[in-house]
Amino acid sequence: MRRILISLLLTIPLSLTVTGQSRTFTSAGLEYALDLPSPSWQAESRVDVHEHLEFIYDKDNSNGYLRLRKKFVAPGSTPQDLFRHDETWDLLGLPGYVVCSDGIGATFEGHLKGTMFSYEYVNKGRSMDGRIYYLQMDNRTFYILHFTVRSDKLQTLRGEMESMARSFRLK
Question: At 20, is the pLDDT very low, low, confident or very high (cuts 50, 70, 90)?
């Protein structure tokens, strides 16, 4: 009994500390918000044709990277349709690409419902993992949260990535 009590007393403050580090990210002009579970996740602006926000873990894309985008689709499009398109046009060209979710995906539910697909590839000689969350707003609109991370960091960051996807919400 004493061991259980000591274990609980040590566990409760640790879980409160981890929760206390989480912060909500949003910005003027964005229609969404999400919770960043640790200070290591930082938003960075990238400009190509227009400005995009990316989230980078520990100042290194290979340590953890999140790209968000909004996609308008034909009515009745499914997450599997979107993944097949992304796989054909983007993922199949990655060195060592292997789909891990058999192209079916796993049902996912946070503030928005959706499907998560996972895959593996190689970047500059490093094994990498990718997770793509297709979150459905309505029958014509999806938000796509595309994470990549070094394979040796996946176990550490898997919970944080899932937490970020679950926390994603419209303002």
Answer: low
